[in-house]
Amino acid sequence: MGAYTKIIPHLVIRTFLPFVLGMPLIGTIIMLYILINPLLWPVLLLYGVWYYYDRHTPWRGSRASKFVRNIHLWKYCGQYFDAELVKTVDIPGDHNYIFSCHPHGAIGIGTFLSFGTEATGIAKAFPKLKFRLVTLPINFYFPLHREVFTFLGVIPSDAESIEYALNIAPKGRAVAIVPGGAEEAMDSHTNNYDLTLKDRKGFVKLAIRNGASLVPVYNFGENKTYHQLPNERGSYVRKIQTIIKRATGISPILVCGAGFFNNHFGLIPMSVKITTVVGAPIHTKKNPNPTKEEVDNLHSQYVEALVKLFEDHKLKYDVPEHVHLRIL
To answer: Within 10 Å of residue 175's Cβ, how many Cβ atoms?
Structure first.
């Protein structure tokens, strides 16, 4: 990438990413402004009618738009992170899949770019699959933010939403989830390879119930996008964060990235390479009422496959040979 093509992604990210990340707040402020201006109430009324009419759409597979997923803004985001999607095997469209992504990172950049947009060319890599990225339901309660996510094909993390997306005919449906969630976000530190996965088995149960194959995914470089305040497990900071997380469902992480005019202090993620490596699917046998033994066995298979995927590729992405994943 030449010097000129490096400048553009940096300018785009530093100008527009704060707007993208702040969409929930911006949408709320816009609605409040309309609320206190009677002349604009017709706009609020029209949006209210639309919101009510469209309220079930995110839970019914959303409405993924090729145009929105291919907006060049996402391409510039991918260039900023030198984002790359690496597939280790071809995945046919005769099954449905749950792509399970690790680690969560501070804000899940690698997973979002690869599965929520076409920044890394997911549609070309897996042309027979239709992807839906999963996020917290709260993201669909903010004006503007809700509409963008819906057109990106993002769906809520409720079990009913995921199952609906997996059972839309024909086959070839793929749902991308991040099992570590908010807890794992609090472990997002450079050179940290802890995964919150030991007791996360809900996605495994969903896979069996719907006959969906499990696909392990690891985002190398994800934990380097921000520096986070030290919060080792058991520390006072971590205990406070955990209390807030349990009350709100959101991890209250304190991070530092780059600024508009510097690379050392600010809320813009740092320009580090993120490589999303997709492993081979683990096929399941559909059972609407899986036993605990079935879930535990598939979970063990999945963890083993994920660890192998990490070990097979870590040296290519600057992870020292002596470093291994810790499944917590």
So the answer is: 29
Q: Which CATH number fits domain 3-315: 1.20.120, 2.40.50, 3.40.1130, 3.40.1000?
A: 3.40.1130
Model confidence band, residue 247 (pLDDT cutoffs 50, 70, 90):
confident
Residues 206-225 have pLDDT tens digits of: 999 999 999 999 999 999 99
CB 96 within 8 A of CB 163: no
Q: What size, in residues, is the chain?
A: 328
What tokens appear for 12 in the block? Answer: 């785009």
Q: What confidence tens digit (pLDDT) does each residue in 7-35 have?
A: 878 887 878 877 777 888 888 888 889 88
DSSP 236-303: HHHHHHHHHHHHHSS----EE-B-SS-SSSSSBPP----EEEE---B-----SS--HHHHHHHHHHHH
